[in-house]
Amino acid sequence: IDIKTLRGATGGVTTIDPGYKNTGSCESAITFLDGEKGILRYRGYSIEELAEKADFLEVVYLLIFGELPTKEQLDQFHADIKSKSVVDDDIKKILDAFPKSAHPMGVLSSLTSALTAFNPTSVNVDSEEEMYRAIVKILGKFPVLVAWTLRKKQGLPLDYGDNSLGYVENVLKMMMKKPNEEYVQNQIVVDALDKLLILHADHEQNCSTSTVRIVGSSHAGLFASISAGISALWGPLHGGANQAVLEMLEAIKEDGGDTKKYMAKAKDKSDSFRLMGFGHRVYKNFDPRAKIIKKAADEVLADLGVEDPILDIAKGLEQEALNDPYFVDRKLYPNVDFYSGIIYRAMGIPVEMFTVMFALGRLPGWIAQWREMRLRKEPIGRPRQLYIGETHREFKAIDKR
Ligand code: ACO
């Protein structure tokens, strides 16, 4: 039977694969991942080397356009991003309308969606030039939205960035600058954030990226697709895990630091509690990003002179899990987010913002995947189902039910 027959309009063969555990949705030349061996590469470059030697904006360029940029290409790209970094002042009114208690991920996703209304020419993009313009716009405006989301939460005045700074330096300053205080850049914090953003920048067809591709496949615009990706990232089984990890570590500390008690809870099938930051759909070996982050957490805390008892609890849990048959048999290792929150906390970033920081890092991956999907002219994403409901029923008038 040829593939066209299989895809016949009246049915054909449908594979049922809940969670798409074994279903490929696309061909992609962006990120290579071998979950058994613990290998992750962006466009063929190993994550270890990129985290060590590249800066975030170079990785953004690499993911989206497929090659490491020359100095001229990078300067031009950065200049284009900076020229589009102003966000319409009316966005501030939308932000104003949110309650202070709103979760930053909900705010960020709404504001990103609102960008569509203020930039209508970025919606229907077909040519590479139009795509490029939409891409530099979102890369320019997104850090402003991230910073404003935090500042709204903290009741601080909103400001635009400082375009004389690097991409990561700028977003940090926009987030952290306090009114009436001189802002002094801390290079340790800048470098640590750069590394964290690189490690989060893409991860092939994860939940949020698949969401971006499927929304984009209907030719909804880039900003709408990214907004949907932010919502998908929010959940604790995906990007929201970084917040959940820290809250879990805090709870263990408050409860006297008894890690064994929480290990037992995680293994107890009658309890829905899971060890947050452990396990991964694809990695059945150490998440290579977790190794880099664990080392970075040690260095950043030492450099900043922060002693955080939560780091010891995290290391204790990891050691116990590595020696526990439940975790060993199921190949549950720490994932990227087990240690990232500890670094964010040391940087002074509030816990509710952790997943927003993940979104800032994942933005280039979402863009690269959306662009690849559009350039390859992929068809609209539309999975099938196996219907298990009632067969045909006669309608009954309301007084007869
Ligand atoms: N704690 C305890 N048990 C776990 C955990 C955990 N963190 N993760 C998986 N398991 C167990 C499951 O109960 C299941 O056991 P069983 O076979 O006895 O029923 C087995 O391991 C397989 O788990 P699944 O849920 O089937 O694996 P899946 O691939 O669907 O889920 C996921 C992967 C969602 C990441 C899961 O491991 C999890 O919930 N982890 C905690 C949340 C987390 O850290 N998410 C971040 C992922 S990384 C990221 O998105 C950036």
TrEMBL record:
<comment type="pathway">
    <text>Carbohydrate metabolism; tricarboxylic acid cycle; isocitrate from oxaloacetate: step 1/2.</text>
</comment>
<keyword id="KW-0816">Tricarboxylic acid cycle</keyword>
<dbReference type="InterPro" id="IPR016143">
    <property type="entry name" value="Citrate_synth-like_sm_a-sub"/>
</dbReference>
<dbReference type="InterPro" id="IPR016142">
    <property type="entry name" value="Citrate_synth-like_lrg_a-sub"/>
</dbReference>
<dbReference type="InterPro" id="IPR010953">
    <property type="entry name" value="Citrate_synthase_typ-I"/>
</dbReference>
<keyword id="KW-0808">Transferase</keyword>
<protein>
    <recommendedName>
        <fullName>Citrate synthase</fullName>
    </recommendedName>
</protein>
<dbReference type="InterPro" id="IPR002020">
    <property type="entry name" value="Citrate_synthase"/>
</dbReference>
<dbReference type="InterPro" id="IPR024176">
    <property type="entry name" value="Citrate_synthase_bac-typ"/>
</dbReference>
<dbReference type="InterPro" id="IPR036969">
    <property type="entry name" value="Citrate_synthase_sf"/>
</dbReference>
<dbReference type="Pfam" id="PF00285">
    <property type="entry name" value="Citrate_synt"/>
</dbReference>
<keyword id="KW-0012">Acyltransferase</keyword>
<comment type="similarity">
    <text>Belongs to the citrate synthase family.</text>
</comment>
<dbReference type="GO" id="GO:0036440">
    <property type="term" value="F:citrate synthase activity"/>
</dbReference>
<dbReference type="InterPro" id="IPR019810">
    <property type="entry name" value="Citrate_synthase_AS"/>
</dbReference>
